Amino acid sequence: MSKQVAVILSGCGVQDGSEIYEATLTLLRLDQLGIGYRCFAPDIDQHDVIDHRSGEARDEERRNVLVESARLARGDVAALEELEADEFDAVILPGGFGAAKNLSTFAEDGADMVVQTGLQEALAGFYEDRKPIGLMCIAPVMVPRLLGPGIAVTIGHDPGVAGAISAMGGLHRSCGVEDIVVDFENRVVTTPAYMLATRIGEAATGIFKLVDRIDELMDL
Fold first, then answer.
1. What distance in Å separates the CA atoms of residue 46 and residue 62, rounded to the nearest whole number?
2. Using CA atoms, how far apart are residues 182 and 27, in angstroms rounded to an integer?
3. What keywords are assigned to this protein (predicted)?
4. Which residues contact 51 (CB under 8 A, 6 or more apart)?
5. Could you say which of 12, 39, 137, 175 is catalytic?
6. What gap in Å lies between CA 70 and CA 75, rounded to an integer?
7. Which CATH number characterizes residue 97's domain?
């Protein structure tokens, strides 16, 4: 496998970590295309722990983002601080509320959010080297803070989140669940995934298109 992609996770579970279907579909499509990958996650405490049956917070419980991400990666996950952009050809960030809680403070602060320092440092090398960057679901909301203003992204068509992206200097493009938005100049690819998906098949169509486009951009 000559191409290598870094996949950045934010825990395990849609309400407090990475969206499991989005992460799995990303890894599946990379494997189908014969692209190698390695998973990374920050070695930090989760913002909170949510009971995924009831939707209620478990205030007494603490979990670690890296340890939880290992559930998704079948144990093969490295700390985000070990990610070196020059060892990979592209990077992809699945969504889930972990992107808004663990990788950034968007869930609490909206357009005033800050992004996790380690994530910003990790993505800087990819952006500076013009290596493709893919984000899905809520993760694209971080782009103005991570990469700078004026980059076109999508989270679907949620007016509140789209407004926050605009307030931070980003460019939001409305998009259907089965499609992608590509900023060719900045080599950023985004798709709504479970911001809109009601079935795993809907999410898969857009995610597969995102990975396919990342694959094409790696050749340019």
1. 7
2. 20
3. Lyase
4. 57, 58
5. 137
6. 4
7. 3.40.50.880
- Of residues 81, 78, 95, 93, the one with CA closest to residue 16: 95
Per-residue model confidence as pLDDT tens digits over 5-50:
999 999 999 999 999 999 999 999 999 999 999 999 999 999 999 9
pLDDT band per the 50, 70, 90 thresholds, residue 125: very high
Please name every residue paired with 57 in a beta bridge, in sequence order, or none if there are none.
50
The number of distinct structural domains making up the chain is: 1
Give the mean model confidence (pLDDT) for residues 185-212: 98
Residue-number span of the structural domain to which 39 is assigned: 4-219
Which residue from 68, 120, 91, 83 is spatially nearest to 7, judged by alpha carbons? 91
Is residue 137 annotated as part of the catalytic site, yes or no?
Answer: yes
Q: What is the mean pLDDT of residues 86-102?
A: 98
